[in-house]
Batch of 4 targets.
Target 1
Amino acid sequence: MSTDFYNYVRGVSDEVPLGYSDNGMRAYRHLVFLGASQLVEASFPELRERLGEASWRELIAAFVRDSRWSSAYYGDMKDAFLEFIERESTREV
């Protein structure tokens, strides 16, 4: 799979890669977002509750888009999320 595919699925780009359908790519993007949301929430249920739905969705979208998560194992997502939060919290505003 191409970098364009991964960039679209993670929300880095909104340009559907050549050879893929718009509907199919939107489904992939949704499934990645949903999977990340569910797995992060399983480790940090109180965070979603405290943030509220809109802020939670923004946080997960930013995590999927900007994190350095590259493992094929969803079990590694908790550590990647913690690294993302730490990196983002120290970033200059």
Target 2
Amino acid sequence: MERTFLRRPRAGRSDGAVLALAVLLLGGCASLQDGAQRLATLGGAISPYRMDILQGNVVVREQVEALQPGMPRQQVQAILGTPLVASIFHADRWDYVFTFQRQGQPPQRRVVSVFFEGERLARVHADGELPSEREFVASLPVRRPAGKPPVLEADEAQLRAAQGRAPAAAAPAAAQPPAPAATAYPPLEAR
């Protein structure tokens, strides 16, 4: 007697019901993820700190304008810095990649490629318009704490009060014995 291990579909279940159940479960995952995000930020009132991520070389317009065709590699490296990508398969190409991510700002990404013919600069290609140094610095707003900045100047009364305390503080220092003379140490390396 042969037994078959194939199961028959149960009565009352159809492929449509299974598909509907799967759609409901997957839809629930999305709402759970959204709910978890709202819980993590306490209803959107606060958000977790995400540190700034700066990677690569910042290359600005002034640096690229300083490059001239025919420059040796060492001079290009002195102006732009060490390239982030220098492939052995593309020995005549250096890529300067810059990425910056800061919470609450769109990410920045720039690529500048420098091409050589032998040991001399042939051309430079940037993937868009590069900012000037001033524009780049202005695009990075500094987070300052809210509130009034502290006053960094002392008025006459505060100066007199500080001068009145200074001699009393200086007296114990004068009563201490003088510091010992500098000691001669042997050289670190054998001669």
Target 3
Amino acid sequence: MNTKRLSERLAAVAAFVGPRAVLADIGSDHAYLPCHLALEGRIQKGIAGEVAKGPYESAVQTVREAGLEGKVLPRLADGLDAVRPEDGVDTVSIAGMGGPLIASILENGRTRLDGVSRLILQPNINAKAVREWGMANGWLITGEQILKEDGKIYEVLVLERGSAAYDEKELLFGPFLMKEKNEAFREKWERERKSWEIILEQMGQSSREEEISLRKEGLKQAINLATEVLGDGENESK
């Protein structure tokens, strides 16, 4: 992966960046995403935010080698502290972190989102936490993608300003993804369901029934939701 050729995961994120956007890529690592978009002429300006010195220095080097000084600005900052009012950022991307961490970054940096109209988020795990944050904070899910790369499955979520009420099923599986149900979606949730069933069976052999009863009910609910979404009701957990 480099500035000319992104991984499939980052290419999916890039595809949701609107033309002439001013992009802040938080946790940008080598700044490949904003540099790639800048070289293609798809963004006006990019911010490459990094909280760690090593990745920040890598971003500086990438920008220099690509000849994009002044077009992509590496910044050493914690989360959305990389965004300044004078930047005019309208799009924020955060990729390659856990869902709860992404939600935490957004929550802690809420005042930096005033001029932002689109969030493109790629949680490695627990995308539900991102959807829950969006629903609670005035962001509507306008697009989703799920894909498999190098044996791992990734979800990409696009949030824009608006209000929506999602049920438990939509929060867990994604309102767009559960309608499409592509191959990656089915693989992910069949695997998750199998894992939940194994855990539930092991819990059933425990003598600490009172301590784990709530956890068991949560697992049963998740298994039933997965079964319903995947469309094979004969395997429904009782």
Target 4
Amino acid sequence: MKSNPTRRRFLQLSLGGLIGVTLGGKHLIKPAAAADLPHLAEDDAQAAALKYVHVSPESDKHCENCALIQGTDGDEWRPCALFPGKAVNAKGWCSAYAPKPS
């Protein structure tokens, strides 16, 4: 059976790319630091739809103890899974609030 050099080359390059991405590609993509993210504005369309506010009206329900917040504990502004590319105030709140599991 005659092999197809174009197909063979394609498979070699595909396999090489897959190995490169899985073994060494992780260091090439850095997540944005919370300090580099713009702060979410209360009048942002998505923030307004979820009734986001910078200061929670309830002392026991705020972004700091929400399951959706990301980043380092103690930072005033942190990324949130609901608002990609923007940071929320740790003292804030929105209608999608979900308490962290204990």
